[in-house]
Structure formats: C-alpha cells, structure tokens
Amino acid sequence: MIVSTKKLFAHAYGQYALGAYNINNAEQLMGLFRGNIESQAPFIIQISKGARKYTDKRLLEAMIRASEQIFPEAIFAVHIDHGDEETCLDAIRSGFYSSVMIDASDKDFAENMAITKRIVAAAHAKDVAVEAELGQLGGVEEHISVAEDRAHLTDPKQAEEFISQSGCDSLACAIGTSHGAYKFSGSQSIHFDILEEIQKLVPGFPLVMHGSSSVPAEEVERINAAGGKLKGAKGVDETQFKNAANLGVTKVNIDTDGRLVWTRVHREFFRDQPEVFDLRKPGEIFMNEYAKYIFHKNQMLGSAGQLEAVRQSLQFRK
Ligand code: G3H
Ligand code: 13P
Ligand code: ZN
Question: 3-state class of 287 per DSSP?
Fold first, then answer.
C-alpha cells in the first residue's frame, strides 16, 4: 500500500528511521520488497532524476504499482530523490508520488527558500509532502579545518528559519556525510551536535540523513578480490543510525550500498562462471542478496518489526 510520507514520519519520529532506498530496475524492486516484508518494515522507495531517465519513469512507476499488488502486505511511500523544480512539478502533477525532494541546496539561502516555497505551494495543493535541503553535503576530510568543515554544514538557526518560512515537511541536513562510496578520510564524524541543536529548536520536525550508505568493508574486499578497484571506500557506521533517529532523523537515504551488492554479485558470478550468459542467473542471486541486505539494514534503522504498528497507526492518523 502506497501511503503518505508524513504519516510514516509521524509514526517513526524519535523512535526509528525509515530506510529510503533508491531503485532503478526490476531486480532492485523485487529484492527491496522481499527484504522489507521479511523484516516487517515500512519503507520509502526513492527515484532520482537519473533513475527516471535510465529506462523510462513510466516503467518504474508501473513496476512499483505491480509490486504493490504482488506484495499487498507492504506499506511504503514513493519519493522523488534530489529533484529539481521541473522534476518535482512533473511528479506532483502525476499524482503518483507521496513526496518530493526539492534540492536547491547549491543556491544561496534566499533562492533556496524561494524555490522551495514554490514547490511547497504546488505540492501541498495535491497533498504531496516536500523534503528540502539546507547546507552542503560533503565528507569530512582530514586536511579541512574545523571552521572550513562547519561552513558547509547545516546551521541550526538557519534551519529553524528555513523550516518555519518555507513550509517544507522535512529537511535534509548536512551533518558530515556525503554521497557515494568514499565518505570519510581519517576518523569518522557525524555531527550529532547539529541534530541535537535542530531538534531543540524544532522539536518533532522530521530530519533526513543523506549519504548514509555504510559501504561494508567485506563488500568492498569481495569486489576488489573479484577484479574491482574500490580503494579506500568508507561509509557511515550503521550502529549510529539509532542515535540519529532519537535526534529526529526519520529518513535515512541509501543508494550506494545497493550498487555495491549488485557489483559484488555480478563480479563474483562472472569470475566464477565465465561460461554462463543467462542474465537471470546473477539476477536471482542479486535479488536474494539485496533482500538480505535490506533485512539487515532495517534492523540497524529500527524499522524492522514496525509494519503492524504502522498499519494500526494509519487507521487513526488523518
Ligand atoms: O543522491 C543521489 C543518489 O545516490 C542517486 O544517484 O542520481 O546516480 O541516480 P543517481
Ligand atoms: P549514498 O550514496 O550514501 O547511498 O546516499 C544516497 C543518497 O543520499 C540518496 O539521496
Ligand atoms: Zn542524497
């Protein structure tokens, strides 16, 4: 059942975070649904602009509709990841999406606010929720001074102003993580202090953590042992998700880890069975392995086992 992102957030807030998983194809969708059903977790499917272009947005949407029928037990929201204005408006008009992310974080504060307000007006008219972003995502580099590091992180006071004036429903905050497989050099530091300050200023307001793949060391080793070249890849410590959830993070974005599972499965498969050319063989392994990954990740996020409680809460929440 496709549901409102806001309702999922209302249930999760302060207790656990929802996994927001990027998808691009049918195998990812099957693994994603199986993993979430097996772990009894509500979840968010997110689709980037690149994913909508890869095959065709209508194909992805139709596959999600089909998955809803194949897995009637599932409770999930459908979200646009890192949308520009045009993509968000197109998604809002389609009536298919629970929420959109308008990413104008590369603009200055005033322009980010103006763009976000326009999307909020269009989205709320259609009961679609809006995630905005303030601050710039970036890994923590050893050579960067504390002042330089702080400069691109989300400023809690600005976040409070942005939230109250823009009318957005959730905010992606820059707290030291970055996209991709190379997040941290040197010691890891998620800036929990920023989350804490924001939570004090806007208690109950849902926050979003981007760049949350954990880039498992074992996965990277296996990829490299099968011919890959991912040197020094490093991600977020997954034992920190629950702390983040207690501080108001309700959505944790994960894409890279899924790509790593795909890469490991396919590299190992073709290394070990060079005579095979049936695409369904590695595809089957991938779906199982991705489902296992999702199952594990939902335990770390605390969303595992929440499905029935969410179902109950949906009956009472407007
Ligand atoms: O944050 C970006 C996501 O990982 C989506 O990546 O734009 O390559 O689909 P993509
Ligand atoms: P990762 O690259 O860490 O998976 O982050 C994905 C993301 O933030 C999508 O919006
Ligand atoms: Zn992101």
Answer: helix
Q: Which atom of ligand 1 is nearest to the CA of 24?
A: 9
* Residues whose CB is less than 8 angstroms from the CB of residue 218 and which lie 6 or more positions away in sequence, other chains included: none
Q: Which domains does the chain have, with CATH numbers?
A: 5-313 (3.20.20.70)
For 292-310, the pLDDT digits (tens) are: 999 999 999 999 999 999 9
Buried b (16+ CB within 10 A) or exposed e, 138-174: bbbeeebeeeebeeebbbbeebbebbeebebbbbbbb
Those residues whose beta carbon sits under 5 angstroms from the ion ligand 3 are: 210, 253
Going by alpha carbons, the residue nearest to atom 1 of ligand 1 is: 179
Catalytic residue among 56, 81, 155, 272: 81
pTM: 0.96
The question of whether 149 is a catalytic residue gets the answer: no
How many angstroms separate the alpha carbon of residue 82 from the centre of ligand 3?
6
- Which residue has the CA at smallest separation from atom 6 of ligand 1? 48
| Cα→Cα distances 151→146, 154, 313, Å | 9, 8, 40
CA distance 80 to 46: 6
Q: Write down the pLDDT at residue 190.
A: 87
What are the structure tokens assigned to 316, written together? 């009472």
Q: Give the burial class of 245: count Cβ atoms within 10 A of its Cβ; 0-12 exposed, 13-18 middle, 19 or more buried.
A: buried
Query: Which of 44, 210, 214, 240 best tests ligand 2's pocket when mutated (most atoms within 8 Å of CB)?
Result: 210
Residue 143, pLDDT above cutoff 60: no
Token code pair at residue 143: 């050579």
* Residue 125 phi, psi (nearest 5): -65, -20
Cα 169 to Cα 72, 99, 142, distances in angstroms: 27, 9, 34
